[in-house]
Input
Amino acid sequence: MNFLKGTRLPHRKGTADRPTARLTEVREVTLPVQMHIGAPAVPVVKVGDSVKVGTLIAEPSGRVSSPVYASVSGKVKKIADIVLSNGKTAPAITIESDGMMTRDESAVPPAVTDRKTLIEAVRDSGVVGLGGAGFPTHVKFDVDPARVDSLIINGAECEPYITSDTQTMVERSEDMAYALKTLQAHFDFQRIVIGVEGMNRRAIRSMQEMASHMERVEVKVLPNVYPQGGEKVLVYHTTGRTIPMGKLPVDVGCIVCNCTTLAAIGNYLRTGMPLVEKCITVDGGAVASPQNVIVPIGTAMADVFEFCGGLTQEPDKVLYGGPMMGVTVPNLSAPVLKNTNAALALTAKETRLPKTTACIRCGACANACPFGLTPAAIAQAYRKKDAARLEELSVRTCMECGCCSFVCPANRPLVQTNKLAKIFLQEEKAKEEQKHE
Ligand code: SF4
Ligand code: SF4
Output
């Protein structure tokens, strides 16, 4: 694998230097109980209940699950299924705001005395992978400490448009430092490395300043090549270690944590306020006033765009996340989720794709792939529904970064095909398992 591959993308990070705004006046919020990977949380409130900012409204239903907290004060108006961007439905709790944003007085800093209580606190904070992954963060830290020697903080933020992690690194280094000191006290990491892309000078300066007051914390300047934020790529560039296929960072002694995730943990440890708000980058050609905005989780996308001066034209596509790995927002009443880092309203000009033509076997897709995969061959194997060949070509390793599609001169839908191929393999595996039952 050659992690130095990848692709240079236009950055379009025009919001990086603009001040962050805060949206508090929302009429209502809708909080799905499934904003994370794993088992959905279970509602513990009913229609008509009064809640405050930080009140527990849904509790985790297993180890890999995460609690949900009210992000405004007011009354529970509705508990009903909504369609999520992955096409699945999940119950969501709608709270009508009383406009007061009253803090729940039970939200007090947790007592952390050892590693166990620290992991419990991370779970209770409601924090999940805020860079987009949505994996419950306490599960990542719930490992045998003898297996890990390095903590890698992901400040790569390599997708075009998105600058919300930059906002965290520039404006919330105090929360990050608090979390790092607590984690260091209970894990004894040999090194903590914060990875930031070289072009992000303000974030590098802020992180270097923070690191200068701490022990065993360093800032690693990363190449400006997409996708630096992918876990395997980041671990390689910060430690030189290669994560084998099918393995996790912990298998090479690392825990990877996004910088905004870290800040949210620090905020909870310091103040007792769980995850109830999120800074997101609002951008795209259809947005009147692009900027970073801190919003209560559950705020409707329509309200977020309205706060940013509204939409200047009908967007062709609205995305949760960036243009490379983001997913389409089903409709503008869809809420900001825990792991939403951007809301992009893109114009037809921005989303226009040239016509797809035949593969010319140029090899550009394989050259661009950070994992050395061969997307053209994968597409051929998928067309033939050849499961054995797909395994041989390691399609499961694909992190769906989109580099191959981006560079393909024939505009072939390579990343889309890889996603379908991975689903196909899962279905084949399920069929095999059924046969042996
Ligand atoms: S989408 Fe998958 S195959 Fe394409 S470049 Fe990224 S990792 Fe490689
Ligand atoms: S980049 Fe496109 S045209 Fe070139 S080999 Fe890959 S799929 Fe074919």
Summary: The radius of gyration is 22 Å. Residues 368-371, 373, 375, 398-404, 414-415, 418 surround iron/sulfur cluster (ligand 1) (CB under 6 Å).
